[in-house]
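Batch manifest, entry 17 of 40.
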Amino acid sequence: MLKKICVIGVLFLLFMVTAGYRGPGVIFASEQKTVPNSKSLGIGSPEKSVDPHVGYFRFYFQDEKMDYVFGSLILGATVNHGCEIGEAFYTASKIKDGDAASWQAEWIKTARLVEARGIKSLAGGHTVSARDQFLRASYYYHMGLISMPSDDTRFKETALKSRALLKKAGTLLSPKLEYIEIPFEDMVLTGYFRKAGPGKNPVKTLIFIGGAETYAEDHYFYIAPQTFDRGYNFLSLEIPGQGLLPLEGKFFRPDMAAPIKAIVDYALSRPDVDPQRLAVYGYSSGGGFAPMAAEKDNRIKAVIMNNAVMDAGAGVGKMDVSKATSDVTKTWSSFKMRLNEAIAWRFGLAKNDLPGLVEANRPMRFDPAKITMPALILVASGEYQSPEIKRQNDLCFQLLPNAKKRMVITPLEEGASNHCIMENRSLMSQELFDWLDEVFQ
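Output type: structure tokens
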């Protein structure tokens, strides 16, 4: 009898291993239990160097990088009032595929048209119409900025134009979107706060931390309206390396937990923030920055990673930029080149030193075993095909000590497979806030 039980036990363990069992709390967010084979998709194959900023299905452009930005960043912002489908596809139809200058010109042209409509509505006292136009115009200006070199004479002007329009739209929201500045060391961190509602009582709050090429405006259009709808305050500021801070020589640095601590300090200084229901959510590189802060700051009551960047240096070492010599980059589109140059600049590197991003990211690490609060890992199924991304997220989940942990792999067949699930922000928000509501109940 004992021998029979042992044999059954061994067979069960073998089944668990071969089935890829990762333990309780790991959820595929659909009935499909396996991620798609990227060979059949033709984009983003894990067999070559990884580029996280390409899609796993095609939206419009042949250039993979441009198509990813169009589908995930622009169309993905529709649910959060950053885009209209007609405006987006008309603009796309005028852009030369893969060309950075054409992209800039057409999005800025569309932004001006939408801004003009907002000005007209505001002059007539139509504040809802004005607000909606200013929101989209802000994001379109920002999208024109994305492939613009930092030494372009239009760069700072375009960034500030996008910011000014979001600030203007924010005054037409109720409660208003507050533009905030907080001192940190020898710089000022800028961003936005919006109360969940008109009351004075402290409520649950989400602090959002962006990634390697983001601005506070990106953060707003990624998730802010989803927080308001669910009764959460929203707070997000740019940390060193983000926004316009690199123009001041303030680049990404090893101790990214320090500026996040300053943001938590600010949040807890407000009487409308409940200190027992304070969550920090980081996406892209922020999926490393947020847990770097959480392992040192128990004032953070929940942490969300999209996805978990345990070891940024190892991750970047598997990306195509790690092998981006001049012979390689001469085959790239100008659009892809400008986007990667922008990231190098934000780390204080020469723009053509893309392989230098590997060493620049090596200090960006965290230890999941030190993160004692509830934790959620979100991983898009496309990214989960990368062996290195899968390894880091599986290991992070295994090492997290709090029983209230969860890892969700979002599905291709529901349009949720790309980097940071940007193309399906409703599904991303459902998984995030349904879990967070349970943690904070």
